[in-house]
Amino acid sequence: MAKAVERENSIQSSDDLVTPREQTRAGFIALALEKNYLAVPYTEEAKALKTLASTVNRPRELLKSDDLRMALITASGLSEKSLKFLTEDDKTFAIKGLIEKFLEPAGRNFVDELVYRYLLTKGDALGGKARNLAGTLGERKFLRVLLSVFNLAGLNYSWKDAGSDSWLVRPKDDTGIENRIRGLSWTKGNKNRLLLLNTNVPAIKKNVDVSILEGTFDEAKGAKKSIIYQSDKYIALGELKGGIDPAGADEHWKTANSALNRIRTGFDKYQRRPKIFFVGAAIEKSMAAEIYKQLQNKKLHQAANLTNDGQLTAICEWMANL
After folding, report:
1. Cβ(154)–Cβ(188) under 8 Å?
2. Taking the model in full, what pTM does it have?
């Protein structure tokens, strides 16, 4: 336990919290690589579209292909959300507009024009995924380090799978499960602990990024009987901001700080004082000074820079020992 206490004091000044430029650079590169990975299905679909569309001689003949209908709908600019409001005749009308106004004027290059317009629409979908990517990558890194702390300590845990919404036992090989975790449950000594991600906390009627409660995952099931509704079960709550762009750092901190103040105010009504923490990837000097001041006056119990392996490991060990 002595080592854990020592790590709690590892942040000796506000400068320790500032994100180094090399970590900002590494974060942007990681985001770019992940975006490219997300784009793979779209580029492969575009290649297949080009091959299949090349079997026809004129754009009008594309209307006869059932296999290409969905691709033509996409290339016409209709989003997936819009399709539930449209009839098949509406979709055909959009496809005809694509053919008349863009494919036919392209002449012999109509297949290339079709592929370009298909990718333009798919680009919007990719952009939507990419907007949440930084937060997702930050969450994965946090979970991977937390699992590493569990594994090194020999702690067994259960985890909530995002896909099936089921609680599963610790696997022998936990490679990649941080991509699917929505919650963790573990026991250390005689203490049962439950960590939930992005959960609506009734005491404040808002979502909280990370909540740690006293109890098991079985106690979190059910409606009003769930321990989620019991303010005295909350041990710690915090905000996790994975965005790496320095230009958005202050805004992320303002959002997180407001959320943390809501937590304090919400639990004050129940005369409860759970521990409060913050983890962020982009921390600039001005916000680092604010965070450090809150650590000094115990307004914040813990904080860590997501890009600093030492700080991230320390806060994860702190959580495991709560």
Report:
1. no
2. 0.83
